[in-house]
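Note to self: keep these together.
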Amino acid sequence: MSSEQLLHPRNPHQGGYNFAELCAATPNLAAFVRLNPKGESTIDFANSTAVVLLNQALLAKFSTL
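Structure:
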């Protein structure tokens, strides 16, 4: 079973996070965004500061919907 199959079908992030939009919502997140070996943007989820900023960005972007 792939990791995408573990996500709820209505999860808007099934294809991954849109880090460009999230960095626009929370500019400090940009310092933690890196490319993974596949060339996709990601963060180090073991870095608590990066995870906090990701969550702040998600809240900032989606709390107005």
